[in-house]
Specification:
Blueprint lengths: L6 E4 L12 H11 L4 H15 L14 H13 L5 E5 L7 H16 L3 E5 L3 H7 L2 E6 L2 E7 H25 L10
Parallel strand pairs: 1-2, 2-3
Antiparallel strand pairs: 4-5
Helix pairs in contact: 1-2, 1-3, 2-3
Length: 182
């Protein structure tokens, strides 16, 4: 893979945050790490805080955050550095429905403005809704690449097939072989 431009990844719950720093201080730290100018961070800090939706916890140390709160803060920072390529790993797996909708809206804004987004998810509905293309990986191998609806359909067929095979094994009393569903 060759990337020309700013690459930002949001994965690993709160990776790179200082546990003693507040949310606001971690925004500044991570913004600087991701190549933003200090002035630029200050201009965007309210938008980042709003997207993270941590309320009064923004002024509390990171060590008091749940893993979901750290993940939301990480996504909020990553989404606001104007990346050319943004890697998002299960970013919508945390938070309530309102947060998920807000984050998804930000993802659409980024995608529509020209940001390439590599979106990793087990939510097939979101993959079908958000992605134009998809890759189905299993045990490190590419099983399918193409239009997202077709790839999701293949994934769901493989899962259904694996479940049926497991059900037949149980019915036959044969659980000796392990099946690794995609």
């Amino acid at each position: 893979v060759e990337v020309n431009g700013r690459l930002v990844a949001s994965y690993g719950l709160g990776a790179g945050f200082d546990v003693e720093f507040t949310g606001r201080e971690n925004i500044i730290l991570n913004g600087l790490i991701l190549g933003m100018e200090y002035r630029e961070i200050l201009e965007r800090i309210d938008a980042i805080a709003s997207l993270a939706d941590l309320g009064p916890f923004m002024e509390h140390p990171n060590k008091t955050y749940s893993s979901g709160m750290r993940s939301r803060l990480g996504f909020a920072v990553a989404a606001n550095v104007e990346p050319d390529v943004l890697i998002l790993d299960e970013v919508l797996a945390v938070g309530d429905a309102v947060y998920k909708q807000t984050a998804l809206q930000k993802m659409y804004e980024l995608r529509d403005s020209g940001t390439t987004i590599l979106f990793v998810s087990h939510s097939m509905e979101t993959v079908k809704e958000f992605c134009t293309e998809a890759i189905l990986l299993h045990e490190g191998r590419v099983l399918e690449f193409g239009e997202s609806t077709e790839v999701v359909d293949r994934y769901e067929a493989l899962v259904s097939e694996a479940r049926e095979q497991k059900r037949r094994q149980r019915a036959d009393g044969d659980l000796s072989s392990d099946i690794a569903a995609p």
